[in-house]
Amino acid sequence: MNKKMEEEENRRVALEDRVMILEGAIKNNKKRIDNITDIMRDIMRDMNSLSDNKDIKREIKEIKEDIWSLRHEGSNMSAELEKLGSAHLEQMKRIKDKITNNQIRPITQFNGRGPLRKGLQKQRVLMPLTKGERDIISID
To answer: Which of 1, 51, 55, 112 is the most exposed place for a label (fewest CB within 10 A)?
Structure first.
């Protein structure tokens, strides 16, 4: 796998992890809205860079606008905000599934001794977490 494909695969894995972290943050309702919107923004950025589909890009842009309006309205999570965050989460999950299912990559990865064989597991490399994600993980 060349470097660009490997980097894309890493971002795809990180995207899935960030969506799970966001889901936990919204359910627990423990963090400030700016931390949650930071995670949402990172997810949107990853989705935007991983997809060329115009419909997906339009959906992402709509979510981004909602996120910024939420961020400027208040700093603490409320019931209305939780409901809106959950709706965005479902939309993000749909977009993530479209991105990850439409762009299937070959599983061959090189580990220094040649391509991985059937019995060896593929390594999973995660992108570094953002500050908002680290805060949420540390509270739980």
So the answer is: 112
Structure-block tokens of residue 119: 């019995």
Tokens encoding 127: 């992108």
**Residue-range definition of the domain harbouring residue 62:** 3-139
Cα(23)–Cα(67) distance, integer angstroms:
15
- Chain-centroid distance of CA 90 in Å reads 12
Predicted local confidence at residue 75, as pLDDT = 47
* Tokens 């909602």 belong to residue: 66
d(CA 15, CA 105): 16
Phi-psi region of 125 (alpha: psi -120 to 50; beta: other; left: phi over 0): beta
pTM of the model: 0.42
